[in-house]
Amino acid sequence: MENFINYISSLNEKTQNNHIRNIQKIEDLMGRIDIDQKTFLNNLEKSYLNDSQKLTLLSTYSKYNQSNKRNFDNVVIEIFETNNRLKKKYKTRNKLMKYNYTLKDINKEMNRFFDIGDYTSFIITYLITKYNVRNADVNVIISRHKKYTDDEHNWLVIRKNSILYIRNDFKTQKKYGSKIHEIKSTRFKKAVEYFMRDKDFLTRPLFDGFANSTLIIQQHLPFKLKQSDILKITLSEKNSLASSEKLGKNRGTSLDTLASNYNIIV
């Protein structure tokens, strides 16, 4: 197990814990983890698990074999085939899925936030709709210059003709590294600059406190939607491989995670 623990140590804590739980599930189901891939696949096929549950165990088992330099070529094939089955199922489900709001509705409400001077809601909605980030990713500090930033927090840096959106603190940062987006929207720049109208501020957090991020963000989003709702709406309207790859890159999420967690075809 030591090799496995070291192998997954670069993943975020939640993912590491999920893999460790999956090891226990495999041992409960099959007696032990260090079985050959043929036995593993045969036992998995006979199990009561659905394809989504099987996929999570396949992922953990493949990482266990990688960490111990064991052969798992047939497991890779099974992961591919299971993914394809799930994608077909999600594609059918997407066709039947209906939402009360469209991206057009969300963008219209976002612009209304700007027009009435609700710049906090405008900034949050803009970041979540344009970059499909998670709640905690919009916990940002506004800065007059990049030299006042650090490598630990998320930032909105004011430049002459744009805003730099820098993410150092997000769920999958260890895996994907920090992310930087240049935002050239005039409205977005004006909204950000509003919070720095006091010239004494070099930096200023957008939020005074961020203890319950889900509740805080939902209060600022159009129609009290959750960020996950907006993500699902986006994926349902832009349901192509290219769009999903771009979304996954912006968010810091793999295509498999989008498929398994948000019931979409990617």
Name the overall outline: elongated
- Given the structure, what is the number of helices? 13
Q: Mind telling me the C-alpha Rg?
A: 22 Å
Could you give the order of the helices and strands? HHHHHHHEEEHEHEHHHH
> Major β-sheet, in short?
5 strands, mixed
Helix content: 55-70%
End-to-end Cα distance = 33 Å
The chain-level structural class is: alpha+beta
Number of strands: 5
Q: How many domains is the backbone divided into?
A: 2
With strands numbered from the N-terminus, the spatial order across the biggest sheet is: 4-3-2-1-5
Q: Report the mean per-residue pLDDT as an integer.
A: 86
Unreliable sequence segments: 260-266
Q: Percent of residues in beta strands? A: 5-15%
Quickly list its features.
57% helix; 13 helices; alpha+beta; 5 strands; 2 domains; 266 residues
Short description, anyone?
By secondary structure, the protein is of the alpha+beta class.
Would you kindly provide a written description of the structure presented here, covering whatever features stand out?
There is one protein chain. This protein is an alpha+beta fold and 266 residues long. It has two domains: 2-96; 103-226, no CATH class. The protein is 57% helix and 8% strand. It has 13 helices and five strands. It has helices at residues 2-7, 13-30, 37-46, 51-67, 73-96, 103-115, 119-131, 173-176, 186-194, 213-220, 227-237, 241-251, 255-262; strands at residues 140-143, 154-158, 163-167, 179-183, 203-205. A five-stranded mixed sheet has the order 4-3-2-1-5, covered by helices on one side. The longest helix has 24 residues, at 73-96. The chain is elongated. The two termini are 33 Å apart.
